[in-house]
Design a protein that fits this description.
TIM Barrel, 10-stranded mixed beta sheet, 16 helices, binds iron/sulfur cluster, 3-stranded antiparallel beta sheet
Length: about 450
Amino acid sequence: MKISRYNHFLPRGDGKIIAFNCRTGGLALMEESKYQDYQYLASHSQEIESLAQKKEYGELVSKLKMGRFLLDDQVDEVAQLELRNRLSRFDTSLLGLIVAPTLACNFKCEYCFEEVKKGHMSSETVDALVNFVREKAPALKTLSCTWYGGEPLLRMDLIEKLSTDFINICREHKIAYGAAIMTNGYLLTKKMASRLRNLSVSGAQVCLDGPQRVQDLKRPLANGEGSYEVILKNLVDVKDLLDISLRINVDKTTRQEDFAELLDDLEKNNLRDQIKLFFGNVEAANEVCINIAENCYDNKSFSKVEVLLHKIALDRGFGLEKLPSPLISYCCAQSMHSYIVDPQGELYKCFNDVGITDRSCGNLRCAVDPFHPNLFPFLNWNPLKNDNCRECEVLPLCMGGCPHRIIFREEESENNCDSWKYNLEDMLEIVCRFRLKQRAKS
Ligand code: SF4
Ligand code: SF4
């Protein structure tokens, strides 16, 4: 028997130790004395089998085995992660689509990378997309669809048509169907949310950058008017219809007092228990948004701010969205059966490329070629070839980070590390408190 390389322990300062395993997501609170027993086992790893026979260690060993903190000798955790990562790329039973029915938007955000892209999906492309799904249906067990844009709610008619056809195909072939939407929230009225709900859309990710004066400055409507009041009212109206994840974009201009003011507003509007918060690191991902580069955090600096904001949110009683969960791969770019579809029916692997046809990896109307120069590098990218990732103690939470950065932007691999690399310990304390609060409520 041996100790998992992905165990993390953090003293809470009250005689209890937080125990977490990155590969399984197992989280537990241990008494200090049990942790000392664990340390003894860890330093006598050759003897764990025989120590397990002793009364004082037997129960601890069986609990540690259950949470995969202790493993059989032949288990090679890195090899297992690598195999799961590679198998998932070619799993034909799951089709993941992120569909942009339009790239038009009713906002003009200062950092938007889609400024130069326009266009709506034609009925011919809608038919091609439905055919694309129909052809794959016999092999599918799950179809997941995320509506994306531009602002997808500008073309609710297309969402309705496509969803209805997807749902019918899934019924016919006994495929599980699930959908979500990424929206700026301005058009997300109660009526719109009910229509979405009827189309199996269960969750919505909405962005706010701060309280009114910040949001209205950074994310105004295309005509320059503010967007905050309407979005806040919509959140109140739809909170019982959709699971809301509120993404708060963070850069160097984000101030704690602004964040606190936003929380005040959410609280006043009885949204505290109804939405979950997470923080997005604004990135200057391409030349269109290079103007905001100097305000962007690198991942390491962002990780510190992220801890602070999570602490404030949790202290104020808000729910958290970002929890340390094991990943199979960092994002859908590495899967042969996940695509972002633009209004022309072009297929992409990365959000940063959508609408830039030179970067598409195929089209709905043709068979996808795995050797396409915009697809093959993603499918062939193996984070485990990087020694830093292979040895990394948070590998299962990151799986090598964003492949686009390494493959196409040739950034330093250091800035590709997910913030877990830098803040796992601090976040464990927060996550543990959050879980205990959840348990107390249920
Ligand atoms: S490749 Fe990177 S930037 Fe592109 S979708 Fe994946 S994580 Fe995001
Ligand atoms: S990118 Fe960084 S955090 Fe992610 S697995 Fe590699 S070394 Fe670890």
